[in-house]
Write a structure and sequence with these properties.
The radius of gyration is 24 Å and the shape is elongated. The chain has 2 domains: about 5-190, no CATH class; about 220-300, N-utilizing Substance Protein B Homolog, Chain A (Orthogonal Bundle), CATH 1.10.940.10. Helix 1 packs across helix 13 and helix 8 (about 140-155) packs antiparallel against helix 10. The protein has helices spanning about 5-20, 25-65, 75, 85-95, 95-105, 110-120, 125-130, 140-155, 160-165, 170-190, 205-220, 225-230, 245-260, 265-280, 285-300. It is mostly helical and about 325 residues long.
C-alpha cells in the first residue's frame, strides 16, 4: 500500500541515520527500514482513530444538550450529521480497524484534553459549519468533508502536530507519507456495500520489499564509489560542503540508474527532485538535477545503465 515515493523516503531516512552513526551494517539497516515502515502505518491508524474521537465529541455534546433539564429548541436541533458520515461509521464498526487499534494500543495514546481543544476549533471551521447545515449528503460530499478535516484542519493544526510528535517520535518524518497514504485508505472504504474488506492489513508486497531493500543495500554497499562519482561532477564545490540529504538522494538515484533495471531514468530523476523539494533546500532541486544529468550521461556512455522491459530499453 505504501507508494514507491513513500518507500524512497523511508529508505532515505534510514540511510541518513546510518550515515550519522557511521554505520555500514546492511542487516541492521534493513531491520530499521522495516520498523520505520511499520511506524508510518501506526501513525496512519492513529490519525483515523483521532478522527473518530472528534465525531464522538459531536455525539457527546448532542447528548448533553438533549439531556438538559430544560433543553432549548437549539439544543434539540444540535446537528450530529458528522457522526453519520459513512467513513466515520465504517471506522467505528469495522472489526479489523478496531482490532488493530487494540493490538497497537493506540487508544492509550489519546489525550482527551487535546481532543476537546481541537473539537472546539473544528466547530468554528467554515467548511464544517456548511456541512452540518444540511442533513443529507452525497457520497462525494461525505468524502470531501473527511478529506477537509484531515488535510485542511488536522494536518495544519499546531496542537495536533505537537500531539503527534509527543506520541509518535517519527511523526515529522512520517507526515508526508501518511498524508498520501490516508487518501488511498479513505478511497477504499465502501459507501454502502455490506462487504467488510480488511483495509488495515498494512503490508508491502514482495515486489516493493525487494525494491526498497535493494535500494537501501546497494546504496550502502556502493557508498564510497557513488560519493566519488558525485564529487567528480562538482564545479567549485567540495563533497563535504554538500548537505547530507542531497548526497543521499543523489546516491540513491545512481543506485536506481545502475541496479534497478525496470525503473525509467526520467522517473528516477523526477522522484528525487520532488523529494528534495520536501526535505532539502530550495536550491537543491536545480543542483541535484545538474549533477545527476552529468552522471546519467556518463553511465549511459559506459554502458552501466541497462533498462529492461517494454519501453525501457535505453
Amino acid at each position: 500500500m505504501l507508494s514507491r515515493r513513500g518507500l524512497r523516503i523511508k529508505t532515505m531516512q534510514v540511510l541518513y541515520m546510518s550515515m550519522q552513526l557511521g554505520s555500514n551494517n546492511t542487516t541492521v539497516a534493513v531491520k530499521q527500514l522495516d520498523a520505520s515502515i511499520y511506524n508510518a502505518f501506526r501513525a496512519l491508524l492513529y490519525n483515523l482513530y483521532f478522527l473518530t474521537q472528534l465525531a464522538e465529541r459531536v455525539e457527546a455534546e448532542a447528548n448533553r444538550k438533549r439531556n438538559k433539564y430544560l433543553p432549548t429548541e437549539e439544543d434539540l436541533k444540535f446537528s450530529t450529521v458528522f457522526t453519520r458520515n459513512y467513513i466515520i461509521e465504517f471506522l467505528n464498526k469495522d472489526p479489523y480497524f478496531q482490532q488493530k487499534l487494540r493490538k497497537e494500543k493506540l487508544m492509550t495514546l489519546l489525550d482527551e484534553e487535546i481532543v476537546n481543544v481541537i473539537y472546539g476549533q473544528l466547530k468554528q471551521a467554515d467548511w464544517y459549519i456548511n456541512y452540518i447545515s444540511k442533513e443529507e449528503h452525497t457520497q462525494q460530499e461525505q468524502f470531501a468533508v473527511i478529506q477537509n478535516c484531515l488535510h485542511k484542519f488536522l494536518f495544519l493544526n499546531e496542537y495536533f502536530d505537537q500531539h503527534m510528535e509527543d506520541i509518535i517520535p517519527t511523526w515529522n518524518d512520517d507526515e508526508f507519507i501518511v498524508v498520501d497514504l490516508i487518501v488511498e485508505v479513505l478511497k477504499a472504504i465502501p459507501y454502502s456495500s455490506t462487504d467488510k474488506p480488511d483495509l488495515f492489513e498494512f503490508k508491502i508486497s514482495d515486489e516493493e520489499k525487494t525494491f526498497s531493500n535493494q535500494l537501501l543495500i546497494k546504496t550502502m554497499l556502493e557508498d564510497k564509489r557513488f560519493d566519488k562519482m558525485v564529487e567528480a561532477k562538482l564545479e567549485n564545490w567540495e563533497l563535504d560542503r554538500i548537505s547530507m540529504i542531497d548526497r543521499i538522494l543523489m546516491k540513491m538515484a545512481i543506485t536506481e540508474f545502475i541496479h534497478l533495471s525496470t525503473i525509467p531514468v526520467k522517473v528516477t530523476i523526477n522522484e528525487y527532485l520532488d523529494i528534495s523539494k520536501i526535505y532539502s533546500t530550495p536550491k537543491s532541486k536545480e543542483f541535484i538535477n545538474g549533477v545527476l544529468d552529468k552522471i546519467m550521461t556518463e553511465l549511459r556512455s559506459s554502458g552501466e545503465i541497462i533498462k529492461t522491459g517494454r519501453g525501457l530499453v535505453e
